[in-house]
Amino acid sequence: MNKNSLSIVILAAGKGTRMKSATPKVLHKICGREMLYYSIKESLKLSDDVCVVLGFEAELIQNKMQKYFGGKIRFLIQDLIDFPGTGGALKNYTPKYEKVLVLNGDMPLVQANELEKFSTKEAKIVMSVLDLPNTNGYGRVVIEKNQVQEIIEEKDASPEILALSTLNAGVYCFAKEILEYYVPRLDNRNAQKEYYLTDIILLARQDSICIKPLFVDIEGFKGVNNKLDLAKAEEILCHRIKQSLMQKGVSMCLPDSIYIEEGVEFVGECVVENGVRICGDSQIIHSHIKAHSVIESSLVESSDIGPLAHLRPQSVVRNTHIGNFVEVKKSQLESVKAGHLSYIGDSRIGSGTNIGAGFITCNYDGKNKYETIIGKNVFIGSDSQVVAPVVIEDDCLVGAGSTIRRNLKKGELFVTRGEEVVKEGFFYKFFNQKS
């Protein structure tokens, strides 16, 4: 589709009180990104004129979206006092092109290939319709001879109208001239004192303008109104993400148990086992992520992680084995083995180094974080600690149970052990028992 033929406006001014949260509705996240992000992302596939209408917490929302999209989108601030409602959102909106697609910012599952169908249908007004019997919360759409006759809000509907299965999904495509003519004619003479976009349908039908229904699927067009809807939407989107990755060659064991966020990138042949969680802008390259491991905004290349390992943000792991219950935070590991029960934070570790079980970098003194640098071919014995800042040069040996508080020079052996104390029969004396 030619991006120079369609304008898209996304309505995102509402507070979303049913979310029961101080966070604006469209900033609630699914799969790591705000709901509004997905509507904008899909819209930009179809148009170079995407406008987001904001109201509640407008500056906060605008700043969040500009981090993703920069100047690719424009914003319009709705006057929520004088012109509230979906119709009021368009009072000061001017589209660039002759066709205008109107979306809602709380539809994170909508996809560009479905939206494109609106602009290809020949009619001055095309509106989305769901065919779902016994679904609450939607206005009913009266259709005769393949034309929309009327939209009746659920609270205003008679029992006969409520029995209709044709529901308003809330997405419209208007000819520019329709908006220019009818938006100024909207009024707020209703119980909510709001300007309704749906009133354009009523006014247009009174003028005998053809309004075509476009039947759509509930999965893509269902709005998110509460935390339950949010959870269901995330489940669907996560499934889509994993399905796409598997089609591109990523192997997954029990994929329904795996959580992968938007923005995670896989390169080459990768394996992800059950219970894994991969978040943020992580990149996994030719690697094996084992069961129940967590990776956050990290790079993993030619490595195996887990099971039950945790890479926290800003970790870079290459050609490395990270084993059970190892936590890595903001560290760079190159050709390292860390097999068991370790915490590696704010560190740089060179190739050939082996990290024994129970090793800890003591990187925080209560006020500041400090870095540990470990060179190549270093052997760190089990149950050892580094009190950062410390530099351990290449080819060093650290004995088990050592606490390192100073730098080690190349080739050194470092051992700290207390004097052995042995007292025969002490157990029985301590517990007042006979041997």
Structural class: alpha/beta
Q: Number of helical segments?
A: 9
Terminus-to-terminus distance: 89 Å
Number of strands: 36
Oligomerization category of the chains in this entry: single chain
- The proportion of residues in beta strands is 25-35%
Weakly predicted, low-confidence segments: none
Overall, the morphology is: elongated
Cα radius of gyration in angstroms: 30 Å
Q: How can the largest sheet be summarized?
A: 14 strands, parallel
Helix content: 10-25%
Query: Mean pLDDT score, rounded?
Result: 93
Characterization of the model:
The model has no long low-confidence stretch (mean pLDDT 93). Helix 2 links the parallel strand 4 and strand 5 (73-77). It contains nine helices and 36 strands. The strands form six sheets. Strands 12, 13, 15, 16, 18, 19, 21, 22, 24, 26, 28, 31, 34 and 36 form a 14-stranded parallel β-sheet that branches. Strands 14-17-20-23-25-27-30-33 form an eight-stranded parallel β-sheet, with no helix packed on it. The chain has 435 residues and is α/β, with parallel strands linked by helices. The longest helix has 21 residues, at 227-247.
